[in-house]
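task queued by scheduler; priority normal; single chain, no ligands, no partner chains; default sampling; output format set to structure tokens
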Amino acid sequence: MLYYNILRPDASSCAVKRDEVMGDLLEDNLSTASLDMSTLKWSNPQHGGGCAAGHFIKWHTIKNQEDSVAQDVARIRSHPLVPKYIPIYGYIYDVKTGKLVHVPKATEIGRAA
């Protein structure tokens, strides 16, 4: 069994502020917002027309991809419908390179009994 998570560009450094950024964007206006991929900064040439409700939504961002994969593999491993003899491997899919990045901690947690 294979489990993987999606790695976004510079995920670990951006994760802490994602909830704040999403709330700010929704409060302003998403129709003209854009992300500069070289700096990972949002800009918005037109302001207004948004809603402050975005600040009250938990966006469930992932602060550490490897820990998240390990936690998910542990949850899968402990599920009563997953046989203990089936190994579960943990990987992160890097959207920039198209490669799977192995997460040894997750694979250790998911090893077959």
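post-processing summary
- Residues 12 and 48 are 30 Å apart (CA to CA).
- The chain has four helices and five strands.
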